[in-house]
Amino acid sequence: MKLWHRARFPVWKSLLVVAGMSVLTMSAVWMLSTEVRYLTRAAYEEARILSKRRPLESLVTDTSIDPRRRSLFQLVLAARSFAADSLELVAGDTYTTFSDVGRDTLLLVMSASPKMALEPYLWRYPIVGNVPYKGFFDPGAAQEVVRRLESDGYDTYLRPAGAFSTLGWFNDPLLSTALYDDVVSLVATVIHEIAHNTLYVTSATHFNESFASFVGYRGAEAFFRSRGDTANARRAAAMWSDELELARFYEGLANTLRHLYSQQSDVAEVLAGRHRIFEAARDSLAGSLGRRLETYSSVRLARRTLNNASVIAARIYRTNLASFEVVFRELDNDVRRTVATIAAAVRENPGIDPFQLVDEFESW
């Protein structure tokens, strides 16, 4: 499964602590707060994931396990070692264990936006701040929120998440939902999630995810080159090239929608205008843009939901990707130096938009 099909979603220790505390008084407040139910379910699911962890080192030598799966486990361990040793990312104990969640979809992630404006609906969490999505372990609860938001005039977009990060708070296991047969996607996911442990900026979701996307794909390319696997290194580079193409596409689509919403006040005209814009975007995905993509299916892209919420969701991982590429090129295509340089600049300039810092790289 390609990365753009399966979102990656942060889950945090603070949320789980609050959830655990809420369990103590659950019987008294269960009917009073949907948020208590949400947090309790999150705590239960995270505890279930952690309780099922098995060391990958032991799994790779377990002959009762299918050889193909064991080879994927071995690849994950090699990728995390490369991330720590060669890229100098903060790997900690991330992906040293495996947890089989027992189902195809562990988590659904929701984005939302008003129909008449391209503005994300924000959820507030401790430590991480405002984020433009919310994860649900309970599909019924997700559909309930979808119905509520859509009745209030919002577009919504719900998609599965194959992996998530606790930002180093826990020993994040590799989940069965993220064990892709596509080895490039698997390695990119491993490095992407470890990148979150290395650099995370509160309330800067687009930066955090876009930075991790850059590190994931360029890191995967470097990993396969280090192993003499030219074919998969080229595939990783091609996937990153496709991400850059899609970043430009969704940026242009977002700008077109914003222009429409700023110029029109009549509801019927706005709805008709956005319908035309989305149809043109779908034609582009299936046609001219699709033909430029090397690794992604234009047919599948064109079939996906297109509304304000899905545009916002797509841009979470694809904002200003070209700016990271500029720094990468200036630093001799060295992923390690690029990560270290950007991370240092962000940490040394708290309060400044991290995208601005990346854009101003040449003036550092």
Write a structural description:
The two termini are 39 Å apart. The protein has one domain. The longest helix is centred in the last third of the chain and has 34 residues, at 230-263. Mean pLDDT is 87; it is low at 1-7 and 9-32. The protein has 16 helices and 9 strands. The chain has helices at residues 13-24, 26-29, 34-51, 56-59, 67-85, 139-151, 183-198, 205-226, 230-263, 267-286, 288-292, 298-303, 308-316, 321-330, 335-348, 354-359, and strands at residues 7-10, 54-55, 97-99, 107-114, 123-125, 129-131, 134-136, 154-165, 174-175.
- How would you spell out the order of helices and strands? EHHHEHHEEEEEHEEHHHHHHHHHH
Q: Helix tally?
A: 16
Tell me the radius of gyration: 21 Å
Kindly estimate the percentage of residues that lie in beta strands according to DSSP. Answer: 5-15%
Percent of residues in helical segments? 55-70%
Q: Based on DSSP secondary structure assignment, what is the total number of beta strands?
A: 9
Q: Give start-end ranges of low-pLDDT stretches.
A: 1-7, 9-32
User: Given the C-alpha coordinates, what overall shape results?
Assistant: globular
| Strand order across the largest sheet | 1-8-4-7
What's the overall average pLDDT, rounded? 87
| Helix-strand makeup class | alpha/beta
Main beta-sheet annotation: 4 strands, mixed
N-C termini distance? 39 Å
Overall number of domains: 1
Summary tags:
alpha/beta, four-stranded mixed β-sheet, three-stranded mixed β-sheet, 9 strands, about 60% helix
